[in-house]
Amino acid sequence: MTPLYIDVHIIHSAPYSNLNRDRQGAPKTGTYGGVPRPRLSSQHGRRHSRTHMEEALGERARRTRGTPGAVAGRLHESGWDKDTALAAAQMLILAAGVKGLGLSEGGGTNALLFLPESAFDSLAEIAEAHRDALTKAASAAAKAIAQAASKAESSPADDESEDGFEDDAEEEAAETGPLAAAYKKIPAADRKALQASVLEVLRQRNASIAAFGRMLANEAGSSVSGAVQMAHSIATHSGPSQIDFFSAVDDLLHEARQETGAGHMGDQRFTSATFYRYATLNVRELIGNLDGDTDTAQQVIDAFLRAFPLAIMPAKASGTAPHTVPHLIHIAVRTDRPINLAGAFETPVPATADGYVPASLDALNAHAAAHARMLGTSRIADHGHVTLSDSEFAALGDRVNAFDDLITRTLHSVAKHTN
């Protein structure tokens, strides 16, 4: 089957802001072409693109360690005792039998799970179907925990049984915890049914998971190769972060004229840059992840093509309001392989009296033209662009006046190759 990819290339000027912070709170940077540049991480872009896409599609996936708590909340609302509900929800995680997947000290999972939001309801339904077995196990675990606490209060920490060894039940509880030990006493047939049901839920996927993928170690059936790949966004030019000293006035002291200085002082780091942003979507992979549903794939592609270029990245937005739109969006439908055009900026764009945007647009156009000369254009099924500029960019395909029209055109091209 012929490959089919959608490449999205963006030139986006961001004003004085801090869209993506590092551990010290400074704007993230990366070295490219031998010079340091402002950078927006791919994780940052994927997160905001995914949430915007989910809003458009009306269905969400949740990445969380809090699955047991979310399921327990649903069980408690349906009449379960609160402690029993949490224990039952935690035992569902153990029921999956996935090596390395367990419970943290805080009661959540020890790894982030990425599930459709509906999965919490599905897990609650499984608990309801096995309520008797899970309730008995939860009661046994609670009793074991109480006994262990009582023993710890009344006995030295190294107290042993008469023969010098702990009995088997105590040893098992010490190794696995009272909850896991109690769960293992559920009849094998029930545990087998629980495992099958829980694994079925962990393997559920929706549009968001089909697009962005999921990995659960040691459970291949739950892992999904994402159809979307996204590059770190790099500035087309070199540029350092800038320090902003700020102060805040204490209003009450100021109004009482008791103090003339600042109530608080500090500094923050910001940057301004023109970024090259790139993502690619594997249409064949997406359709496969959606079990061949081309209609849903079209909806996902539409939502993603709107989300990636226009998603608001709100870090420190209250003090910078960095709500610009891209100067150029170029979309290419390819039948060979994805093409990242970051090489256009391996040599940093120099500062000019016109800023960085015009030269960045010209560099992207020239680099696309060079690719066309070297590789030919027979594998470009369609390409076009929208731009705020008055200049012509022939190597980026037809100029389209409206962003909506560019997306419609792209969807038509995809449909021709998938129907």
Task: Give a quick rundown of the structure.
This protein is α+β, with helices and mostly antiparallel strands and 419 residues long. It folds into two domains: 227 residues, no CATH class; 142 residues, no CATH class.
Topology diagram in text:
Elements: E1 5-17, E2 29-32, E3 35-40, H1 42-57, E4 61-64, H2 67-77, H3 82-95, E5 113-116, H4 118-129, H5 131-154, H6 168-176, H7 178-183, H8 188-202, H9 207-212, E6 228-230, E7 233-235, E8 242-248, H10 251-255, E9 264-282, H11 283-289, H12 294-310, H13 317-320, E10 328-334, H14 357-375, E11 380-387, E12 398-399, H15 403-418
Parallel strand pairs: 11-12
Antiparallel strand pairs: 1-9, 1-10, 2-3, 3-7, 4-5, 6-9, 7-9, 8-9, 10-11
Fold and architecture overview:
This protein is an alpha+beta fold and 419 residues long. The protein has two domains: 5-59 and 210-215 and 223-242 and 273-418, no CATH class; 64-205, no CATH class. The protein is built from 15 helices and twelve strands. Strands 1, 2, 3, 6, 7, 8, 9, 10, 11 and 12 form a ten-stranded mixed sheet that branches. The protein is flat and about 80 Å long. Residues 159-175 have low confidence and may be disordered.
